[in-house]
Amino acid sequence: MALAMGCAELNAFLRRAFLQIADQVRVDSADEGQLVARLAVDDQHLRPGGTVSGPAMFALADVGIYLAILSRIGEVPLAVTTNASIDFMRKPEAGRDLLAECRILKLGRVLAVGDALIRSDGMRDPVARCSMTYSIPPRDR
Prior knowledge:
Blueprint: H1 7-17, E1 25-30, E2 35-39, E3 46-47, E4 51-52, H2 54-73, E5 80-88, E6 98-107, E7 111-120, E8 126-135
Keywords: Hydrolase
GO molecular function: fatty acyl-CoA hydrolase activity
Family: Belongs to the thioesterase PaaI family.
C-alpha cells in the first residue's frame, strides 16, 4: 500500500495546521510499516531535574501516531484522539532529541489504533511506550 502522504507532505501539513509545534516536531521517515517523529528537545520541554517532561513525551507520541494515520489516509485534520495510555519507563538522556517510532495496529473506517516507542536519539532502550486510538470523521464533513 502506497502512502497517501510522505515526509515532505506531513511536515508541510504540520507547518500549516499546527504552528504551535511546527518548529519542535518533524517527521524523519515514513513508510507503510512505521513513521518516525522527532521532538527537538530544548529548555521548554524540561522539568525540574533536567529531564524531558511527561507532557512533552505524550505530545510527541500523540502527534507521531496522528501523522502515521494521516500518512495512510491522507489529510483528515479532524481525526481526534479518543483514548490514550502511556508508560514512562526510564529517564530520557539529557541533551538528546526524542524519537517516536509509530506503528498503525488497526486502520478502520471510523477508528485507528496505533502505538509509539519513544527513545532518546542514539539510545537503544525506550523511555516511554504509548498506545492511542483515534476517531476518523466521515470524509464528507
